[in-house]
């Protein structure tokens, strides 16, 4: 484990700023060294139809000046939407993000593994659990793997209860089936525990860790209140000290990205999370 490779980050969309320079400064001043970027943070669509390379160069220069890295970008669309045109448009936006990866420096694009719900990619539909939905997702994922290979990026799959990859078990099945090093896991405890069973949250996370740790490259630090609502890490019932210890002992060295709270809690959350991580040594 190289402790110097562990970066503490935050969703860029936590902040509402008009320019990339102000956004990067806000992230750095709140105590973070990286971000999960979103093109919406610089006034574009999250999955843009095209990109202005001058705008990307400006964003990269501004983030470099603030010493904020961009290891990952949000590229979510409904991969099994009932409307095939919606899927095709999402795939086009994903391709644009892949093409822009070198300009901004990210290597991972996060996915929404999809739902048959026609209006909301984050809402459950009973057909999600069927083999037809699985097959549709796998076919779309294969297309994204081809794009990822062409542009040397990784795909960040996050188990979401409302999506096809709804659990650690489903994610493990995917990893075993797909056989591609391009497919990695985004481990978000909020999406792995149940608020109604909060007293067993650490046991649940341990089982998920055992299934997915070897393929996890990003941890999402999002806490949960006892009513099931998201909360800033340290203000809910998830034991982040326990979770981080599992991953650190297992050799994890990727970004830890906080989200699920407002800008007013950004600095205090950074302080809390940094206190759970090993101190970094001097640069070599």
TrEMBL record:
InterPro entries cross-referenced by the UniProt entry: IolE/XylAMocC-like, Xyl_isomerase-like_sf, Xyl_isomerase-like_TIM-brl
Gene3D superfamilies the record matches: Divalent-metal-dependent TIM barrel enzymes
Boundaries of every Xylose isomerase-like TIM barrel domain copy: 27-273
GO molecular function: isomerase activity
Keywords from the named record: Isomerase, Plasmid
Name by which UniProt lists this protein: Xylose isomerase domain-containing protein
Organism of this sequence: Rhizobium fredii
Higher taxonomy: Bacteria, Pseudomonadati, Pseudomonadota, Alphaproteobacteria, Hyphomicrobiales
């Amino acid at each position: 484990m190289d402790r110097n490779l562990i970066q503490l980050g935050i969703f860029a969309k936590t902040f509402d700023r008009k320019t990339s320079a102000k956004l990067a400064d806000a992230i750095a001043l709140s105590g973070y060294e990286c971000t999960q970027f979103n093109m919406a943070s610089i006034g574009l669509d999250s999955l843009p139809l095209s990109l202005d390379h001058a705008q990307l160069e400006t964003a990269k220069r501004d983030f470099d000046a603030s010493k904020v890295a961009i290891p990952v970008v949000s590229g979510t669309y409904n991969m099994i939407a009932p409307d095939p045109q919606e899927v095709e448009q999402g795939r086009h936006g994903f391709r644009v993000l892949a093409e822009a990866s070198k300009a901004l420096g990210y290597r991972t694009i996060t996915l929404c593994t999809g739902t048959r719900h026609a209006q909301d990619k984050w809402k459950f539909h009973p057909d999600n659990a069927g083999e037809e939905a699985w097959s549709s997702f796998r076919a779309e994922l294969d297309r994204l793997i081809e794009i990822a290979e062409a542009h040397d990026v990784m795909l960040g799959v996050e188990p979401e209860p409302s999506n096809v990859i709804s659990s650690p078990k489903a994610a493990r099945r995917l990893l075993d089936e797909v056989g591609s090093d391009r497919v990695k896991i985004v481990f978000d405890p909020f999406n792995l525990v149940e608020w109604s069973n909060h007293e067993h949250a650490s046991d649940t996370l341990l089982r998920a860790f055992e299934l997915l740790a070897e393929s996890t490259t990003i941890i999402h630090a999002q806490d949960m209140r006892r009513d099931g609502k998201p909360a800033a890490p340290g203000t809910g019932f998830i034991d982040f000290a326990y979770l981080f210890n599992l991953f650190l002992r297992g050799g994890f060295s990727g970004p830890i990205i906080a989200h699920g709270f407002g800008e007013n809690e950004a600095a205090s959350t950074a302080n809390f999370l940094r206190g759970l991580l090993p101190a970094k040594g001097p640069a070599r």
